[in-house]
Write a structure and sequence with these properties.
EC 5.1.1.-; magnesium ion binding; 33% helix; TIM Barrel; Enolase-like, domain 1; alpha/beta; racemase and epimerase activity, acting on amino acids and derivatives; 8-stranded parallel sheet; 2 domains
């Protein structure tokens, strides 16, 4: 017989994490544990206010499937009972972890994939003054990939400051839905001149029809506009890359489906995360193995991660031991 437990956990950050929509000082997450036959599978989700989620609503959603889970429901049944959400992500990943532990193997082996390898990740420079962002970039000048959080105040100065301090890394620029289509057009030359590799979700998701037919000089990734595989047909004329986050897809199961569908349609892949612990990053690393861009530095922002978490050295994540293996 199975038993389910679900709780909230909070991880203070080492520094405030600022984006165009606001600032975070802690990673507030939902932790799910499913126990059976002496083994425990764990998963983590990050409820996101942008999608109307809270810790309380996520825990309530998990309670609605308690009876089904404790009676033995699997990932397919749970996907029919819960919408894509952080709550379902935590449950789905806990089920994957439990299955691997019961089988005495790893999740990658269950999937027929090689073990997770060390993975280059973007390290994020949060929104600040151009001077402060340049100072932060100077410390990251030797990493492979930097992600810059910008807004509408002076994105050109913000990006220039980072590139001047860190001339070598690849760059992702993320306005978090704060730009207009006019600003996207106006900044094209700058993005090219500063060798920006990817522009992530510049327009509000509700206004991204303005991107239809627009030929960007820099690939544009759908983040807030992209959740599950069913979204892809509407995205293909607007974006070249899809950012896969397990909290949006509702778990590893749907994330892998989205990755396969996007690849089949010729779209590039990015794997992202919320500000979270390594328990959420471990399954995302499986998706990242086939992605051109990984943005999985959530645990880097924590004052203290979970035991057995990832290690980040010069922008390279070493796989964690806390999830997905026997």
């Amino acid at each position: 017989m199975r038993t389910l437990s679900a709780r909230s956990d909070s991880f203070p950050l080492v520094a405030p994490f600022r984006i165009s929509r606001g600032v975070k000082t802690a990673a507030d997450v939902v932790t799910v544990e499913i126990a059976a036959d002496g083994h425990v599978g764990r998963g983590e989700g990050v409820p996101y206010p942008r999608y109307g989620e809270t810790i309380e609503s996520a825990l309530a959603a998990i309670e609605t499937v308690r009876a089904a889970l404790e009676a033995g429901a699997g990932r397919t049944e749970i996907s029919a009972l819960m919408p894509p959400s952080a709550a379902r992500n935590a449950v789905d990943c806990a089920l994957w972890d439990l299955e691997a532990r019961l089988a005495g193997t790893s999740v990658t082996a269950l999937l027929g994939r090689p073990p997770i390898a060390p993975t280059p990740t973007a390290l994020t420079i949060s929104l600040d003054t151009p001077e402060a962002m340049g100072a932060a970039a100077l410390k990251l000048a030797g990493v492979p990939l930097i992600k810059i959080k910008v807004d509408r105040s002076d994105p050109a100065a913000q990006i220039k400051a980072v590139r001047a301090a860190a001339p070598k890394p690849r760059l992702i620029v993320d306005p978090n839905e704060s730009w207009t289509i006019a600003e996207v057009r106006e900044l094209q030359s700058l993005l090219v001149d500063l060798r920006v590799d990817l522009l992530e979700q510049p327009l509000p998701a509700a206004e991204d029809a303005a991107l239809e037919g627009f030929r960007s000089a820099v690939p544009i990734a759908a983040d807030e506009s992209a959740h599950v595989a069913a979204d892809l047909d509407a995205l293909m004329q607007k974006y070249q890359v899809v950012n896969i986050k397990l909290d949006k897809t509702g778990g590893l199961t749907a994330a892998l489906e989205l990755a396969d569908a996007a690849t089949a349609k010729g779209m590039g892949l990015m794997t992202g995360c919320m500000v979270c612990s390594s328990l959420a990053i471990a399954p995302a690393l499986i998706v990242a193995a086939n992605a051109a861009f990984a943005d999985l530095d959530g645990p880097v922002w924590l004052a203290n991660d979970r035991p057995g978490g990832v290690r980040c050295t010069d922008g390279i994540l070493s796989p964690p031991s806390l999830w997905g293996s026997a």
